[in-house]
């Protein structure tokens, strides 16, 4: 062992350690920001380690430096620019875009190595070694391509650039995807047999497979898919690690892959969906309208903003249940103004955050934090559920399925078993909603029929603005 | 590095990932996903290796450079955006207006 190898070994070890500490630190609110910086530092360290290793051994040609600098500057500038500009509400699609590009990078590396075998480093390739090489190249291309096209489709759907084509909801899509999968398997074996040109077939069919699998999935399930694709990009990176013989790449890729899987599982649990049904079930609303859960509403009480304001003024304790609709209406800042007024009047305000509120787990927390809501007021479901019986008013904003009592009471309901917020236990429930349309599951919400529930119809932002006006007229928050 | 030891690295890395993520509160899932996503851009190291070993092969240099660009887009963007999200959490109640 000579010096450069030892130095690289030490730096790699340190980088892995710091990355692991970074991921761990991201799990606590207090340490999360520093942990993120630590991980970023570890990444830079790994680059320094790699470059200094090559400087110490084979040297780096001027030409290589030029291409390194060009690639880094362009990529970093675009990344930093997008990260600064993008609004917080479009976080899921941003993560999807970044993720897709990571997959693309792994794909290109494998493609490059496949077309122009790297000279040097690889001492006499025996059969076993070259087999491993071809397998890892294929895996890297396959997973990288699926990650890229899948993420781009996910982003386009979340942005509303792409809708779900009708044929993708029929059985045809399974047939199409199976054809793509079989074709990529054929290309894979052909590649191992030494037919290099089939690499292009592999690139094309795995890209198509990524599109075919993601396109049928409904908007509400998209976060699960993004999380899964995030896991894939880790696997693609690990596969690229096998291609270029880098342990650091394998460890980091494996960590991200495993983390993504866990996160995906958590999201599925929160939505009472299995991963299989997300991936192969199509969009949920298509199936469940025909199922037993639907029915007519019989006892809807609608009320005006003024009544709502009067009830709020008289309350001691108010719980806010924010949902996807709030994020869509971008009303989190207006909501914060309402709750500020209530707090100034000595009313206790708490936000009940369902695990899948918003568009991904934790997304709602980010949006509310952006609107200056103190972190301590955000309560998780298990913490806040026992509080509902002692609560005077619950304000449901753009949430639907997560407050449906059917999930607890009706074993025939498709929602049955999903953890929900027990808002019906409170004395009065106000549901602010555009109209009587169903939630993303397409299932009737029994909450709306309960005698202690009143509907306030209208756009969340407009209703909240009116509410501010009414509260002002009542003199709330002006002492 | 022998293939078998690389497989061990893969296995241990996966176990580490499972163990690290197991205890994260839902609040932090979006930032965590974004942060983990940035780390998956570690494939920039593979792109760098490709460029260094290209030895004047221009098409390979270009592929490597584009790959590096994509990876760094992922890494830099990912870390910045995660930081932006987390900055909102770390704001202390006393700092608010």
TrEMBL record, chain B:
Transmembrane segments: 33-52, 59-81
Catalytic activity: NAD(+) + NADPH + H(+)(in) = NADH + NADP(+) + H(+)(out)
Stated role: The transhydrogenation between NADH and NADP is coupled to respiration and ATP hydrolysis and functions as a proton pump across the membrane.
Organism, as annotated: Prochlorococcus marinus str. MIT 9116
Organism classification: Bacteria, Bacillati, Cyanobacteriota, Cyanophyceae, Synechococcales
Domain of life assignment: Bacteria
GO cellular component: plasma membrane
Official protein name in the record: proton-translocating NAD(P)(+) transhydrogenase
GO MF term set: NADP binding; oxidoreductase activity; proton-translocating NAD(P)+ transhydrogenase activity
């Amino acid at each position: 062992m000579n010096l450069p190898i030892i130095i690289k070994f030490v730096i790699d070890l340190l980088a892995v350690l710091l990355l692991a500490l970074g991921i761990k630190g991201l799990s606590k609110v207090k340490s999360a920001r520093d942990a993120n910086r630590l991980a970023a530092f570890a990444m830079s360290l790994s680059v320094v380690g790699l470059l200094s290793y090559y400087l110490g051994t084979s040297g780096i040609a001027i030409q290589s430096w030029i291409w390194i600098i060009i690639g880094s500057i362009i990529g970093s500038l675009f990344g930093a620019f997008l990260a600064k500009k993008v609004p917080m509400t479009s976080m899921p699609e941003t993560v999807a875009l970044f993720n897709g590009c990571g997959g693309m990078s792994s794909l290109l590396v494998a493609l490059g190595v496949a077309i122009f075998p790297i000279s040097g480093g690889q001492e006499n390739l025996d059969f076993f070694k070259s087999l491993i090489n071809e397998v890892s190249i294929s895996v890297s291309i396959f997973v990288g391509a699926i990650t890229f096209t899948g993420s781009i489709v996910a982003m386009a759907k979340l942005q509303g650039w792409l809708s779900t084509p009708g044929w993708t909801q029929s059985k045809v899509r399974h047939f199409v995807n199976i054809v793509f999968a079989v074709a990529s398997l054929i290309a894979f074996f052909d590649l191992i047999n030494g037919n290099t040109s089939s690499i292009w077939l592999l690139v094309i069919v795995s890209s198509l497979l990524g599109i075919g699998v993601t396109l049928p999935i409904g908007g509400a399930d998209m976060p699960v898919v993004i999380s899964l694709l995030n896991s894939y990009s880790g696997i693609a990176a690990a596969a690229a690690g096998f291609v270029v013989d880098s342990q650091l790449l394998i460890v980091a890729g494996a960590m991200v892959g495993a983390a993504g899987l866990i996160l995906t599982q958590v999201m599925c649990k929160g939505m009472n969906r299995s991963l299989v049904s997300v991936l192969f079930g199509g969009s949920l609303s298509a199936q469940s309208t025909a199922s037993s859960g639907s029915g007519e509403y019989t006892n809807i009480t609608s009320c005006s903003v003024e009544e709502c304001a009067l009830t709020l003024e008289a309350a001691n304790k108010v719980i806010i249940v924010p949902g996807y609709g709030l994020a869509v209406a971008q009303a989190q800042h207006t909501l914060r103004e309402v709750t500020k007024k209530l707090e100034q009047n000595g009313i206790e305000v708490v936000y009940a955050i369902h695990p899948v509120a918003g568009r991904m787990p934790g997304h709602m927390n980010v949006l509310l934090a952006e609107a200056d809501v103190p972190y301590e007021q955000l309560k998780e479901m298990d913490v806040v559920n026992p509080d509902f019986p002692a609560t005077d008013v619950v304000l449901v904003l753009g949430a639907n399925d997560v407050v449906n009592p059917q999930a607890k009471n009706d074993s025939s309901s498709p929602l049955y078993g999903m953890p929900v917020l027990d808002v019906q236990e409170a004395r009065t429930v106000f549901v602010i909603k555009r109209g009587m349309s169903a939630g993303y599951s397409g299932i009737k919400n029994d909450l709306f029929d309960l005698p202690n529930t009143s509907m306030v119809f209208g756009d969340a932002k407009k209703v909240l603005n009116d509410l501010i006006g009414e509260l002002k007229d009542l003199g709330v928050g002006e002492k | 590095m022998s293939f078998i030891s690389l497989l061990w690295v893969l296995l241990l890395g996966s176990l580490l990932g499972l163990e690290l993520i197991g205890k994260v509160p839902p609040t932090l899932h979006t930032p965590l996903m974004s942060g983990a996503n940035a780390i998956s851009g570690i494939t920039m190291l593979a792109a760098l290796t490709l460029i260094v070993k290209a030895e004047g092969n221009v098409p390979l240099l270009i592929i490597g450079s584009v790959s590096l660009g994509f990876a760094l887009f992922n890494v830099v963007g990912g870390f910045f955006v995660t930081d932006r999200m987390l900055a909102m959490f770390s704001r202390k109640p006393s700092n608010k207006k």
